[in-house]
Amino acid sequence: MESMRNIMQRSAQRLRRTFAKATTPREQITQALEATLRRASQHTQNAIVFVVEIDEFQALHRYYSGQDLTLILKILEDRLNGALLSRDMVRRLDGGQYAIVICPLRAYTQEDILVIAGQIQRLISVPVILAETQAKVTASVGCAVMKTEALPSGNAALEAARIALMEALSKGPSGLRLYVAQMGERAEMRRALGKDARAAMASGAIQAFFQPQISLCTKEVSGFEALARWQHDDRGLISPAEFLPVLEEAGMMRALGQTMLRDALAALQGWDRQGLKVPQVSVNMCGEELRHPDITHDIKAQLDQFEIKPNRLVIEVLETVYVGDMTDPIILNLNAISKLGCHIDLDDFGTGHTSIKSVRNFAVNRIKIDRSFIVDVDRDAEQQQIVKTILSMANNLAVDTLAEGVETDGEVAHLVKSGCGHAQGFAIARPLPVAEAYAWIKSHMMPPIPASISQRLQ
Ligand code: C2E
Ligand code: CA
Ligand code: CA
Question: Model pTM?
Answer without folding.
Answer: 0.79
